[in-house]
Design a protein that fits this description.
46% of the residues lie in helices and 15% in strands. It is built from five helices and six strands; from the N terminus they run βαβαβαββαβα. Strand 3, helix 3 and strand 4 form a beta-alpha-beta unit. Helix 2 runs parallel beside helix 3. The longest helix is centred in the last third of the chain and has 17 residues.
């Protein structure tokens, strides 16, 4: 699922994701649209902009996507300083502008995490959420 209020960027992301073998189940521009799609489709992965038409609701969307729908979340943002502390359950964040290769690498990273609960190599230009590195470090020390 794509949650992005810039229509052209959302369409470009959908094309890149489709070419990467993803089934894009919907695009939303705000929080109500995101939850409507999530309720119907239960996406495995959600790419979520932090700042949307209805304000800085990306973190709220991410938290609910993770807790209620079991979706992995990756933030997209032009304002890295707005990434929430701890990343609200998201796997990480990608700063805009980004290229197709970055999105493909982030999707591959997320797929590995979703399927195997393991961390692959962190993609270029992807900020890994602190909770992932912390839990990974703990697992290594056990």
């Amino acid at each position: 699922m794509i949650v992005e209020d810039q229509a052209l960027l959302a369409m470009e992301l959908e094309l890149v994701l489709t070419e990467a073998g993803c089934d894009v189940v919907g695009r939303a521009m705000d929080m109500p649209g995101a939850f409507e799609i999530a309720e119907r489709e239960r996406p495995d992965l959600s790419l979520v902009d932090i700042n949307l038409l209805d304000g800085m609701t990306g973190p709220q969307i991410a938290e609910r996507m993770v807790k209620h729908y079991g979706s992995a979340v990756v933030f997209l943002t032009a304002n890295p300083e707005q990434i929430p502390e701890g990343y609200a359950g998201a796997l990480g964040a990608v700063s805009k502008p980004f290229d197709d290769q970055t999105i493909r690498a982030v999707v591959d990273f997320a797929r590995q995490f979703i399927r195997h609960k393991t961390l692959g190599d962190t993609p270029h230009r992807f900020r890994l959420a602190p909770w992932l590195t912390h839990s990974h470090d703990e697992a290594d020390s056990l």
